Amino acid sequence: MSLADYKGVLVYIEQRNKEIQKVSIELLGKGKEIADKLGEKLSAVIIGYDVKNLAQELIYYGAERVIVVDDKILENFITEPYTKALTAVINDEKPEVVLVGATSIGRDLSPRVSARVHTGLTADCTSLDIDEETKQLLMTRPAFGGNIMATIICPDHRPQISTVRPGVMLKPHKDTSRTGEIIDFDAGLLPTDVNIEILEIVKEDKKKVNIEDAKLLISAGRGIGSKENMVHLYELAEELKGEVSGSRAVIDNGWLDKERQVGQTGRTVRPDLYFACGISGAIQHVAGMEESELIIAINKNPDAAIFEVADIGIVGDVSKVIPLLTEEIKKL
Ligand code: FAD
């Protein structure tokens, strides 16, 4: 088979409890852009049990074809049967590009699938594009501890597989007038493919915050000074109905939980408004928040790097500026 035999873009749709994960919708948006540049079709593959009714939604978000692998065996995510199912779809479809969310499931699935279809994988990408001349996928991700952004290509094998972090790509517009093809796929799964037994499923604590979904984030840096001073941020967050997040320094100091860390080794966020309070603006932090709609930075050092990405900069002491701001907002 030659590389030219591979056609189209395939997005792996992650569902949990029959709920499509946001990152998969974001990837449909990016996938469509790539498919258009290649002049090819965008397909989605959804794997699970009783999930066919989700296919139409994927068409509304841009998929022209939806491949459904529906089997009782696939009710819960188990590495082996899901790997077998996705591998079978890729071997049958021969897509040129495969996109997977860099979630815990995507990170488990994609290296195994890549190995089985004998191609490479570029993990944790923050940007994807098509080289206009060679038509190759340009997969960009932070490398060397976030000190450089590396653009990686997969010149000799197909498909070109990439995982992308949630929150990095924009969610596409939903258009309910879109139509597409829904295809049932038999992956040839056998009961013996299930090599583990699920004894108990512990439901995620619903109260757990997901800072990736927050519209407004008040983010703390080491400049906050102490865990006690975090109270100023909680007060502002309450007034503005936002969530509190932080830099790695704050998480390492134990002032916030790890799930609230923004940055390369934390979450990628894109809120409407991001307050960076006492954050220096290290590249590993900025990589996780620079796509925010509006960035307001407060820092006592006028030369802090965070001011380079901020839309509004306030030079001052956070422990004075934040309470003043909260007071003024309360008056509105
Ligand atoms: P600092 O860099 O110490 O900055 C504190 C800032 O507060 C300074 O700019 C200072 O001027 C200001 N300040 C001090 N006092 C006040 C005051 N009273 N009022 C106003 N301003 C004040 N970091 C992340 O955030 N997220 C990541 O995911 C992440 N991943 C990493 C991955 C790797 C592989 C590596 C090597 C590093 C990573 N880091 C990450 C760490 C990153 O390099 C920085 O060390 C970290 O972001 C610094 O956090 P900070 O800005 O809160 O603290």
UniProtKB/TrEMBL annotation:
Pfam families: ETF, ETF_alpha
Domain Electron transfer flavoprotein alpha/beta-subunit N-terminal: 9-194
Residues that span the membrane, as ranges: none
CDD domains listed in its UniProt record: ETF_alpha
PANTHER family reported for this sequence: ELECTRON TRANSFER FLAVOPROTEIN ALPHA (PTHR43153), ELECTRON TRANSFER FLAVOPROTEIN SUBUNIT ALPHA, MITOCHONDRIAL (PTHR43153:SF1)
Protein name: Electron transfer flavoprotein subunit alpha/FixB family protein
Organism: Alkaliphilus flagellatus
